[in-house]
Amino acid sequence: MIVSRSSAVGPSMGISLDGYYDLASGSMDMQGVLSPIYLINGIGQIFSRRGEGLIGFNFNLRGSVESPRVTVNPLSAFTPGMFRDIFRRPPPKLSQ
Q: If you count DSSP H runs as helices and E runs as strands, how many of each does the chain have, helices first?
């Protein structure tokens, strides 16, 4: 399964996610951004993707669904939303 440019928002948190999930093996390779205090932080959405604010933490989920390896880049919090793509790979391409 390919997840491309997904997001969820609420007053306390915003999140964006894209990547791959292999249904047969139960493994995944996902990346995204977690934006805390989204009600205030979401002002930066003008310059970034839906679910991301001015302040956000880039994260990666890799491995099996039962025990994924989670990594967070703490320096990405200091990068404004419009420049955050520097820290991540391009989203998966969907074939038409």
A: 1, 5
pLDDT of amino acid 44: 57
Q: Is 36 helix (H, G, I), strand (E, B) or coil?
A: strand
β-partners of residue 70 are 61
Pairwise pLDDT comparison (1 vs 43), residue with the higher score: 1
> What percentage of the chain has pLDDT greater than the value 90?
25
Q: Are 35 and 51 in contact (CB under 8 A)?
A: yes
Q: Answer whether 35's CB lies under 8 Å from 52's CB.
A: yes
DSSP letter, residue 41: H
- Interatomic CA distance for residues 3 and 61, integer angstroms: 13
- So where are the chain's domains? 2-86
Q: Which amino acid is at 28?
A: M
